[in-house]
Amino acid sequence: MATGSSEEVLAVDVQNLIESLNQADDGGAETAGNEAEDSMTENLPEEGSEVDLDVVELASTGEGLALYKGSKRVYIVPFAVPGDTVKAKIYRHLRDENYTVADFISVVTPSPERDDSRVQCKYFAACSGCQFQMLDYAHQLRLKKRIVEKAFRHFSQLPPELVPAIQDTIGSPLQYGYRTKLTPHFDGPPGGRRGNNKQPFGSRPPIGFMLKGKRSTLDIEDCPIGTDAVRLGMKRERARMAVEYGKYTRGATILLRESTKRVPKKTTTTAAEDNSSSLSQPPSERETAAKDSSPPPAAEEDDVVRVETDEYTDLKTCVTDNNGTSTEYVGPYVFHNPAGSFFQNNNSILPVFTDYIRQHILPPSPSSSSSPDITTTTTSPSPPPQIKYLIDAYSGSGLFTITLSSLFPGGSVGIDISDASITYASRNAASNSLLSSSPSPNSLSPDGGVRFLAADANALFTGPEVLGRYPPDETAVVLDPPRKGCDAGFLRQLLAFAPRRVVYVSCNVHTQARDVGVLVRGETAGSGLQEDDGAEEKGGDDAGGKKKEEKEKKKKKTRYAIESIRGFDFFPQTGHVEGVAVLNRVDE
Ligand SMILES: C[S@@+](CC[C@H](N)C(=O)[O-])C[C@H]1O[C@@H](n2cnc3c(N)ncnc32)[C@H](O)[C@@H]1O
User: Fold this and answer.
1) Does the beta carbon of 458 lie inside 6 Å of ligand 1?
2) Is 578 tagged catalytic?
3) pTM of this prediction?
4) Would the keyword Transferase turn up in this protein's UniProt record (predicted)?
């Protein structure tokens, strides 16, 4: 079970529910372990039978946790919310995992929170996505706040006093029609083993998403969380497959990625053209339209969705070529991306989200904060130095590096393991007039510009570039790793580097909580760095004294305090939430 995986998250929720049931029980002395054993020896309903279950909790994976006839065994049932009584079919009793998995059949008595008229998708309760559709949106946001709370309670391994109250989840402006990327798939023809099956399909295979709880694909005509352009793309791809299915001998995933061509209605000076546009200006004060060098949409007029505003017309199309380019606008910035590589999937929330990161990447000014600045040492009356440098680890095609760069006069560097994303990141910096004046495209020199490096994030700490050139006291780091989080080596090196401020963004709040726990507990700065042999100390001269002082400093523990944590709803109708944790180095 990988840390922060759905299986682990579910297992933790089940265990906590069993413990709370035990505590509520009169005979509370019984342990969760005993209870689990009892639940396996009790008469369990037969696999395949249908039973009524009372849903008492919502797991952080989006499923309901239910009980059967007063027993304390936990049943996992999807598409159900606390307060529901549902009819479910027992799928499997999992002895090791200590729970039973069941398929949802129907609602017997609805929870007061449930209103099925809210459901906008005809595949609800069959497709594995979008389990929250029956809930009011405000309620979905409250549930996501709770998911973040539980993640930090159970996965950070921090005492409660070190975790501030989780703030309210910021909602998505669009709650349907928001996903700029969908990837329906189809399976290969039956009867063959991977790769060896050369038989063509006899008819168009089902194209869609996984059936909930099954290893088969549900044919999906339309997906209402997709944007209009993506939904049109889905229709077009299904029509193409109805003709071309015979060409395929294997299963495949179809890329549907929205791309925007922005056509201004009146001439505006672009940031790229305006030489007076200063890097230190916030984007709101720059001219609006960033230079768009994207090609015009090649699609037929029928495949173009037009979105009109006072200033421009957006022509939205759907890219299906993984090696193609997609273009998105976030506020005044334009981003070109390799269509098959990572870019955030909900464009509607990105202006709100990137503004929030802009507001929090630097410490609050003393006048705007009632609490003392915890990065200021208590013994020194002098204010801490200004933060001038930004490191964007796991930068993708530069979303944060570019939207934050005007706050960092010293310079910004983004690093990502994907060559394609970094090639586009440099192009995006140019399109937004932010390229460094330094001639070498891979140079990290902090000269006020924006730089990108195609490498593993650990490379930040292995060369002299960042360690030598980005003073930790004047550097902020934004982290946005993939779902599995940061690796232990990266966190150790980050602690050794000890930047003043860290903003950790993640689409998996469980691995985020784990990693934030590591940063808050801290490690000895300098661990992993080469130790000196202490020869100079023996002389007891000035140089020796300095060396000793230096060594003492290295031994100091670097740790962080959490300033704030909150979720952003990038994924309405689902149980997923994007977390943002803001951390300050604690100087002791
Ligand atoms: C969640 S995405 C974030 C991208 C970007 N911050 C954004 O919002 O568009 C995670 C990124 O981490 C990159 N990545 C994965 N493993 C990495 C590693 N070991 N070192 C550097 N980047 C990595 C992926 O290529 C991907 O672009």
Assistant:
1) no
2) yes
3) 0.86
4) yes
